[in-house]
Amino acid sequence: MSGEHLLSKLAIKNTSGDLEAFLAIKSAMKDQYDELTNPSGVLNLGVAVNKLQEEVILKKLNSVNQVVKEDLEYFDPTGTLPFREAIADIFNRHFNVHKQVESDQIMVVNGVTSGIDVVTSVLCEFESTSRSSWCSGSTRRDSAP
User: Fold this and answer.
1) Higher pLDDT among residues 99 and 22, named by residue
2) pTM, whole model, 2 decimals?
3) What digits encode the pLDDT tens for the residues 29-49?
4) 138 — alpha (psi -120 to 50), left (phi > 0) or beta?
5) Cα-Cα-Cα-Cα dihedral of 32, 37, 39, 43, to 10°?
6) What is the residue-averaged pLDDT of the chain?
7) What InterPro entries would the database entry show (predicted)?
8) What is the DSSP annotation of the chain?
9) Are 33 and 41 in contact (CB under 8 A)?
């Protein structure tokens, strides 16, 4: 396989223009933080959980704002309980709800794409969960067209 076919046309277009951001990342990777050998180096905050630099990150973040260890880890996938309780309270106080909204009835997602994914997985019956059927949009209908 030749190299020109390894990337899509869009990927080639996106990587052949201005490389300033790429070069900045490359430079930062050469200057990574180490408490003993490079204390003024770059902290990599581009990872989900950074246990290796947890104390350093906590110290820096707490110099700006109060942060606890749990803030650096994964949360409940439906959203933190205090946040869901606050959302339920807003609905109950500011909307004319027929029945009180409870925090366990709320699911917080990280964007509209995740929300659409959750809704479609609840409402749609897919013939197969293989990648090809998801990509082609093959779904089962309850009745014939």
Assistant:
1) 99
2) 0.43
3) 899 888 889 888 888 777 767
4) beta
5) 20
6) 78
7) PyrdxlP-dep_Trfase, PyrdxlP-dep_Trfase_major, PyrdxlP-dep_Trfase_small
8) --GGGSS-HHHHHHHHS--HHHHHHHHHHTTB-BTTTBTTSB----SS--GGGHHHHHHHHHHHS---GGGGS---TT--HHHHHHHHHHHHHHS--SSPPPGGG----SSHHHHHHHHHHHH--BS--SHHHHHHT-B--SS--
9) yes
